[in-house]
């Protein structure tokens, strides 16, 4: 017998009591990297007028939570990493991206990414949209709509939230399929493998389609849960990655259109 439970979610302004929930969600993105997640969470809370957190709409009276802290199911925000370059966690973020790019991407990709991230004339916002993996993707659309309204209001107030580029790190994985070998013969040579990148947050594929530059790096050695290890499904297996994308802000309108077509119900 299967049991279906209907749960309503609400978008709310982040508050100090959300610290641990936000940090936990950041942990599933950054894993064992050297980015200080406590400092990054403090920055997110200090600009809680940008973005929102997702919480359960109504908490049952018999809830197990007795400390008054409501669980965070997701959050969205964007941080100006150009103007906040003095923050150690954001410098560590840029170092992480550039180091992984140097190791895992073509030289031309590294040079392009480095020329933008290290040049203050290019205003870059780091977009974070994290949620529990089992939540419906339809939640993403109102989250992005809320963020867009907040950014527009901030720009009207002449705050530093007008960006040339959006930097995004996505939780991705590859499905490796082994091509069939020749019939009637056993080959000692490894069989050809084909990999397809898949996004944990499905809507983030639209950012990938519109990216100015992008690359992926493996995190199999850092993963303790989620997509850790190698999972097998029939004749295929999955391996966890992170996909870094640098998207021109001018492409956000097109991304929003694609997202609406995909997620509208």
Automatic annotation (TrEMBL):
UniProt superkingdom: Eukaryota
Pfam families, alphabetized: BCCIP
Xref: InterPro entries: BCP1_family
UniProt family annotation: Belongs to the BCP1 family.
Name of the molecule in the record: Protein BCCIP homolog
